[in-house]
UniProtKB/TrEMBL annotation:
SUPFAM superfamilies linked: Radical SAM enzymes (SSF102114)
Pfam families: Radical_SAM
Residue ranges annotated for the Radical SAM core domain, each copy included: 38-269
Superkingdom per UniProt: Bacteria
SMART domains per record: Elp3
Protein species of origin: Candidatus Cetobacterium colombiensis
Database matches in InterPro entries: Coproporphyrinogen-III_oxidase (IPR034505), Elp3/MiaA/NifB-like_rSAM (IPR006638), rSAM (IPR007197), rSAM_horseshoe (IPR023404), rSAM_sf (IPR058240)
Source organism phylogeny: Bacteria, Fusobacteriati, Fusobacteriota, Fusobacteriia, Fusobacteriales
Name of the protein: Radical SAM protein
Amino acid sequence: MHFETRYKSHHNSSGLIGKYYPQKRLTEQEFLNKLKEEPKDVPRAIYVHTPYCDKICSFCNLNREQLSGSLDSYADYIVSEFDKYGEYRYFKEKSVDVIYFGGGTPTVYKNDQLEKILKSVEKNIKFSSEYEFTLETTLHNLNDQKIDMMNKYGVNRLSVGIQSFSDEGRKFYNRTYSKTETIEKLIQLKEKFNGEVCIDIIYNYPTQRVEDAIEDAKIIKGLDLGSSSFYSLMVHEGSTLSHDIKDSKVKIQDDLKREREIHDAFVKELTSDDNYYILELTKIAKKGRDKYKYIKTRNFGGDTFPIGVGAGGNVDNISVFRMKKEMAMFVEKSEYQQRLDKFSGLFQFPQIEKKLVNEILTSDEKIVFNNVISELKDNNFILEDETYYRLTEDGLFWGNNISREILTTIVEKTLG
């Protein structure tokens, strides 16, 4: 087994099952009827999307736009959504384990707008005893008042878009602040914020050296951060970077050997003293600290209730995607789709419990799966013991390819 192109995101595996099953569209009323039922006993998350930034990263084409006016109306819309859905049994009768504000930049709101939203969460949502409440942010969008406010309303995790500590890398990604300023800002943030401070790193920018990746990892350890994601740079159509490439202003190196060297150097350095471990394919966390419950809820068959324009998720067997304030798509997932989605989610992690695989797959699917695993073992992507399948160093680098390969083979061999 040999992979020519590396898939850099779990999204490369999603959507594969849908082509075998025509989508069954549902009405909003059918979705609301689901919220009137007794809530199921599954992990539950809320995802809140803010599609606005006041500064756009060079590589980004996500569902966001540059802030050009007041966000009063959008903040009021988010509040109204919490007020609306908070009246249903779905939220009244069962607590929520995770709430994740993504974007865009959720801290782009003014102080009073952010407080209005956080108050609506407090009013309408019951949290479980060990809940996780995350806001994505940039350093330049924070101030002392916002930090105090997040402490007050129970935000206990920040995901800070750093991308690179290198001055050259930060310039490439269109980040605010120099390396020295960024480190100082993170030190101040850790002193003032009561919860876990985590960051995002994007590696493999055109001029990056292996030494730059190692330095990023050393800084993360030195700052004692809760975790760091590490994504390889992806060029998205419509981003500033994609236009610069077309205009020959930037040349991206399509060099898997170089990408692998940078990836491995970062992972090796950050996990070198056994204080940090690989939590999932693109996340390294400090032991006993960041749990990243949001990704586990999404991948292990829990609910993710979506709020905000551009938000997607699911409640039980109903997938939801919100295109506009008053427009959403509701799709019913078959039992087969739900089962295979959960199975696919297992392979976002460096070790996969055999018991969970056996609980999900049918006997015919297990035969196909075991054949694929055998080939992956022969090619040194996976190791196996009595309890787990474990990704090797090669397996970690090619993790999304492996997930896609396993899922595609099972679907195509069993459905035809």
